[in-house]
Structure formats: structure tokens, C-alpha cells
């Protein structure tokens, strides 16, 4: 795919890049039905033109990195709904192709990169497990779950794999092991709470797993309270020695049982300048952050 002329790792060495925002909330804003356990994966399968429109909205807002709609797509869950392995693989590749089309639409004077989302095992359970980790699955079982997804996504030619919303080091080790020697490039992003991974491991330990991994071009956090970001940026930069990626939520808390968000009483400020000073080189938003907010972030990122 002839889109970005500069390798993403090289671009990060030069400046801070603006990520997009939450894909699901933008699809909902476009009138898409995200009920059920597949969320954006359902729209990817049933209305791909809506996914393209959502990516395009973020490009117009100034986003320089688009994250694909593959977060919720798994062979197991779609298989239970009647799709064969070839069809699921095609769906994963479609997610990259749609983001690439939106990136190309930015025009010849802008570089826009594509990050293929590799959501955690817990995301496929659709019960909030990605905010707890420790699924009770062996490393072999997790590897069997992730391997075909990674292979299908990377074969579609994204610039990077987004190993995102990872709740614990056990799953992170499996993901990093699958990348070893593959030639793929990835960022590793944990979801955190209270200065630790969601499963309770220290952040220096979690980020340190990526320190000697040439496949990993950035480490950081996503899908967390913005108040967690500052400490995590410093820990990530110190432990991994790599550019840091951050894309928190708006401060709302997800209730996996009720399937709804609980918004904060007072909006939480985002000290982007401080994050950048401490090593953040990819900055954007996750759940409940839309194109308007991304456009506002753009000014802070460029500053």
C-alpha cells in the first residue's frame, strides 16, 4: 500500500504524531448499531462503508495514525456466528484496507499511517475482561488465539500492529513472543489503573518486557483514565527506552456488566505538553474521544 513514505519509527524520532480517537463512539455517532458482543467488528462485517467514513472523519480532524476496526474481531467469536476461517481472515484484512483507503484520501501532501488493532483476549469475551486480565488461559491458549489474527493483519500491510488495551504482563509476553523474529513492527499499550496494569503488575516490569524487543517501536497506555497517563509515560520511557504512546479515555469508567459508561462529574484535563516532555510521541484518544476532541489535541501535539 503506497501511503506513508516514511517508516513510522523514523517519524517518531522526529516529532510527536497525532493518533485518532475512539472508533466505536464515532460509529455510534454515525447511527451504527453496536449492540451485541462484536461492537465495531459487527459494523466492519455488515457496513464497511461506515468504518471508512469514521476513519475519514478522523483524517479530516488531523489524525496522522488510524487504528483499524479489528479490535473485536476473533476467529472464535465470528466462527460461532457462522463465519469460516477464510472469511474471518478476509474481515481482518478488510479492516486494514479500509483504514488505508482513508489514509490515502488525506492527499499527497500528508502522511497518514495505519495501525492494525490487535485487541486482547478479553475483548472477544465482551464482558469487561480486558480490564481485569488473568483470564485463566495458558500461554499456549493465548498464543493460539492471537497468532492467526496477527498473521492476517500483518499480511494486509499496515505500518504497525497496535497491541492495545493489554491488561497484564502474561498476555504481553505471549504477544511479544509471537512477534519475535517475524519482521513485524508493533506498539505495546497496556490499560492501567492505580499506577499498575489492570492485573496489578508494576508498570516498570510491564514496560520493561519491550526494552530489548526490536519489533516494538513504542510502548505506553490506552483506554485508561487520563489521570493515569503522566506516571505511565515516565515509567514507560524509563523502563523501555522507546517512544511512548498514550491514548486515554475521557475519564469515564466502563461498566462491563451494565454495558455502559459512567462519566466523570468534572472533565479531566490533559496536560499534553507534560506528556510530550516526558517522552510521549504518539498522542490521541480512546473511548468517547471523537473527531472534535482529536482536532483540539492536534494543536497541543503540534505545540
How far apart the termini lie comes to: 30 Å
What pattern of helices and strands is seen along the backbone?
HEHHHEHHEHHEHEEEHEHEEEHEH
Share of residues in strands: 15-25%
Helix fraction, binned, reads 40-55%
Overall strand count: 12
Largest beta-sheet characterization = 8 strands, parallel
Structural class by sheet pairing and helices: alpha/beta
How much is the radius of gyration in Å? 17 Å
Average pLDDT = 94
**Helix count, per DSSP?**
13
Query: What would the principal axes of the Cα set say about the shape?
Result: globular
Give unreliable regions as ranges. Answer: none
Strand order of the largest sheet: 1-12-9-8-5-4-3-2
Notable characteristics:
single chain; eight-stranded parallel sheet; 303 residues; 43% helix; globular; alpha/beta; two-stranded antiparallel ribbon
Task: Summarize the structure in words.
- With 303 residues, the chain is an alpha/beta fold.
- Helices cover 43% and strands 16% of the residues.
- The chain has 13 helices and 12 strands.
- It has helices at residues 8-14, 23-29, 40-46, 48-60, 75-80, 85-104, 121-125, 139-155, 169-179, 203-208, 229-240, 272-277, 291-302; strands at 17-18, 65-67, 113-118, 160-166, 186-190, 192-193, 196-197, 216-222, 244-247, 253-255, 260-262, 280-283.
- Strands 1-12-9-8-5-4-3-2 form an 8-stranded parallel β-sheet. It has a two-stranded antiparallel sheet with strand order 6-7. A two-stranded antiparallel sheet has the order 10-11.
- Helix 9 links the parallel strand 4 (160-166) and strand 5.
- Helix 6 packs across helix 8.
- The longest helix has 20 residues, at 85-104.
- The radius of gyration is 17 Å and the shape is globular.
Amino acid at each position: 500500500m503506497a501511503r506513508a513514505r516514511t517508516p513510522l519509527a523514523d517519524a517518531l524520532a522526529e516529532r510527536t504524531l497525532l493518533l485518532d480517537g475512539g472508533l466505536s463512539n464515532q460509529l455510534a455517532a454515525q447511527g451504527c448499531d453496536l449492540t451485541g458482543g462484536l461492537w465495531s467488528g459487527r459494523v466492519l462485517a455488515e457496513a464497511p462503508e461506515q468504518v471508512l467514513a469514521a476513519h475519514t472523519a478522523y483524517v479530516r480532524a488531523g489524525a496522522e495514525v488510524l487504528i483499524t476496526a479489528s479490535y473485536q474481531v476473533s476467529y472464535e467469536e465470528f466462527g460461532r456466528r457462522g463465519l469460516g476461517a477464510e472469511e474471518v481472515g478476509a474481515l481482518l484484512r478488510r479492516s486494514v484496507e479500509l483504514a488505508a483507503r482513508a489514509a490515502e484520501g488525506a492527499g499527497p501532501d500528508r502522511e497518514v499511517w495505519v495501525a492494525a488493532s490487535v485487541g486482547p483476549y478479553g475483548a472477544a469475551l465482551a464482558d469487561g475482561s480486558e480490564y481485569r486480565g488473568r483470564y485463566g488461559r495458558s500461554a499456549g491458549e493465548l498464543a493460539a488465539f492471537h497468532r492467526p489474527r496477527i498473521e492476517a493483519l500483518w499480511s494486509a500491510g499496515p505500518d504497525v500492529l497496535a497491541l492495545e488495551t493489554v491488561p497484564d504482563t502474561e498476555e504481553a509476553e505471549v504477544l511479544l513472543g509471537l512477534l519475535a523474529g517475524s519482521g513485524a513492527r508493533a506498539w505495546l499499550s497496556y490499560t492501567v489503573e492505580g499506577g499498575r496494569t489492570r492485573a496489578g503488575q508494576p508498570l516498570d516490569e510491564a514496560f520493561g518486557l519491550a526494552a530489548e524487543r526490536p519489533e516494538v517501536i513504542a510502548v505506553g497506555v490506552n483506554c485508561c483514565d487520563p489521570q493515569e497517563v503522566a506516571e505511565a509515560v515516565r515509567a514507560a520511557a524509563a523502563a523501555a527506552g522507546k517512544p511512548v504512546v498514550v491514548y486515554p479515555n475521557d475519564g469515564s469508567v466502563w461498566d462491563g456488566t451494565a454495558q455502559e459508561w459512567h462519566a466523570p462529574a468534572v472533565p479531566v484535563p490533559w496536560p499534553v505538553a507534560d506528556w510530550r516532555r516526558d517522552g510521549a510521541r504518539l498522542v490521541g484518544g480512546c473511548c468517547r474521544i471523537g473527531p472534535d476532541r482529536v482536532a483540539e489535541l492536534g494543536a497541543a501535539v503540534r505545540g
